[in-house]
Amino acid sequence: MNHLQSWPEPVVRVQALSESGLTKIPDRYIKPATDRPSPKNLDDTHINIPVIDLQNLLSNNQTLQYDTLSLISSACKEWGFFQVVNHGVSHELMKQARETWREFFDQPLDLKQKYANSPSTYEGYGSRLGVDKGAKLDWSDYFFLHYMPASLRNQSKWPAVPQSCRKLIAAYGEETVKLCEKLMKVLSINLGLGQDHLQNAFGGTQDIGACLRVNFYPRCPQPDLTLGLSPHSDPGGMTLLLPDENVSGLQVRKGNEWVTVKPVPNAFIVNVGDQIQVLSNAIYKSVEHRVIVNAVKDRVSLALFYNPKSDLLIQPIKELVTKDRPALYQPMTYDEYRLYIRTNGPCGKAQVESLKHR
After folding, report:
1. What pTM was computed for the model?
2. Per-residue model confidence (pLDDT) at position 2
3. What is the rounded CA–CA span in Å between residue 210 and residue 151?
4. Has residue 347 got a pLDDT over 70?
5. Rounded CA gap, 239 and 234, in Å?
């Protein structure tokens, strides 16, 4: 990835644009008419992704356990997304993490610029994905950092302001990684495998990758013309999203429609990534999603990406490959795989589809 040394043009901070008082967004952010949010999609109040209570996984009642496993299995197959409550992560920690990151994005620009990132690792304060000169851009800024493996965890690259930030990142990372490990066991059992099989296919628990991307979606004077994040499926294994508690923005593709996710208080949104689609031989599917923006309110969300060991070859698990269901995907390491989105930016499902055997 060393050839991705610098951005192809000066980086513009979207928050600074938003706060400048402009009434029309620059052309760089205007999406083609076919990609813009549709009013029909924006306010559908009747549909939501499944909401699943995890406390029954610990129940002595096997029926309750089985029902919860079954709900998660159906959600992975039918939606690729679900929300979890009673997940074991402190609600206070979730609240503090959100508030701390909002405080970071409220800092003066020159302070945030000290953490400006480059496309070589994406670590730090950023405002774009992909390195194509002149590409259409999304209406968002972000902060990206590595939590695992421990060898990549560099706290000097984490914000020192607000003062509580580094300590909170460490606590939040520890708790969310534990939750991901719990969910990996569930997904593995639901695939008919041993509870640790999927985790072992990721390279165990010590060498997995865990990255945090904190998204800041500034208010936008023309939200109907742009997106906070273009359609894509997540390239990694599993994503644990802590959404903004006040403003909806995440949309999930269901057939030909976009469904706006309505966050449940104190819930995480979980979604299957491309690596689990490959390992499960498409029994579970990563699903396209995007983010819409708001005319009057900023939004903050925290996405914890739980990924396989980066140099491990990822391919369909042999127990899930049969004569009737041959291996659908060619092997590839996650290091190789994520280079695509880092180079090209979000591209729907094009990347995982390109792995299919022809």
Report:
1. 0.95
2. 47
3. 12
4. yes
5. 8
